[in-house]
């Protein structure tokens, strides 16, 4: 019930209300099932995706730093929930305007690791693998631009990608992030009498696309 109401708030643009509800769902499952239960890990991933949509990258990263090691240990490296969670973490790292050089390197390393796993377990045509590939390309581009940036220039994530490529690459990667949500990359609740834990919320795709536009305009 709470998750369905959170979706309604999201559609109305009330992100903070939706985030609070998803936080409550996560906290409730944490108390009910414990931190290692799959339902808790799914709720954590739901909450993290919404945090990224709201550009609350630090909170998303902090949450995932706690949750993803548990998913790796309990569910396994090749589990789709684990792959989704690590992909959200990689995106949160390099999409953050305050990302450091080390953050960008960690994003690339994380995405390279899960790309190999996804190709082996899911195959190259799977939407999760495609989403990872796309994010990896853009993370590598951001890292390369930062590493070759003259010392005199401000070291910001938005300045990391050359102006000629920034609008396209940032918008495209976030759009791909959103497409992956619609394709089932992330487990997010949708209004349904009995929500399927594997279902997705297409509204998140629209919000991520809007995020890309707003960030491009600020670049």
In short:
74% of the residues lie in helices and 0% in strands. The chain is mainly α and 219 residues long.
Describe the protein's topology:
Elements lengths: L1 H10 L3 H19 L4 H16 L3 H18 L5 H16 L5 H21 L5 H21 L9 H4 L2 H21 L19 H16 L1
Approximate shape: globular
Second-tier CATH architecture: Alpha Horseshoe
The CATH homologous superfamily is called Tetratricopeptide repeat domain
The arrangement of helices and strands along the chain is: HHHHHHHHHH
Distance between the termini: 39 Å
What is the fold-level CATH name, i.e. the topology?
Serine Threonine Protein Phosphatase 5, Tetratricopeptide repeat
Q: What's the domain count?
A: 1
Q: What fraction, in percent, of the residue positions are helical?
A: over 70%
Could you say which structural class the secondary elements and strand pairing correspond to?
mainly alpha
Radius of gyration: 17 Å
How would you name the oligomeric state of the polypeptide chains in this document?
Answer: single chain
- State the name of the first-level CATH class: Mainly Alpha
Portion in beta strands: under 5%
Mean pLDDT: 76
- Biggest sheet statistics: none
Would you kindly provide a written description of the structure presented here, covering whatever features stand out?
It is built from 10 helices and no strands. It is an all-alpha fold and 219 residues long. It has one domain (2-218): Serine Threonine Protein Phosphatase 5, Tetratricopeptide repeat, CATH 1.25.40. Helix 3 (38-53) packs parallel to helix 5, helix 5 (80-95) packs antiparallel against helix 6 and helix 9 runs antiparallel to helix 10. Residues 157-175, 181-203 and 207-219 have low confidence and may be disordered.
């Amino acid at each position: 019930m709470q998750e369905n109401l959170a979706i309604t708030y999201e559609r109305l643009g009330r992100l903070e209300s939706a985030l609070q509800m998803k936080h409550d769902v996560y906290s409730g499952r944490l108390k009910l099932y414990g931190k290692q239960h799959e339902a808790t890990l799914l709720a954590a991933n739901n909450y993290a995706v919404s945090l990224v949509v709201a550009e609350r990258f630090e909170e998303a990263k902090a949450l995932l730093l706690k949750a993803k090691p548990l998913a790796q240990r309990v569910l396994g490296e090749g589990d789709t929930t684990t792959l989704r969670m690590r992909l959200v973490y990689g995106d949160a790292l390099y999409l953050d305007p305050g990302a450091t050089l080390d953050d960008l390197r960690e994003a690339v390393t994380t995405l390279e690791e899960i790309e190999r796993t996804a190709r082996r377990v899911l195959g190259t045509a799977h939407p999760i693998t495609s989403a990872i590939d796309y994010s990896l390309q853009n993370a590598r581009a951001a890292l390369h631009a930062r590493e070759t940036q003259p010392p005199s220039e401000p070291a910001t994530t938005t300045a990391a990608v050359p102006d000629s490529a920034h609008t396209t690459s940032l918008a495209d990667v976030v759009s791909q992030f959103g497409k992956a949500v619609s394709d089932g990359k992330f487990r997010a609740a949708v209004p349904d009498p009995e929500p399927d834990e594997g279902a997705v919320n297409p509204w998140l795709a629209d919000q991520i696309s809007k995020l890309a536009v707003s960030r491009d305009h600020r670049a």
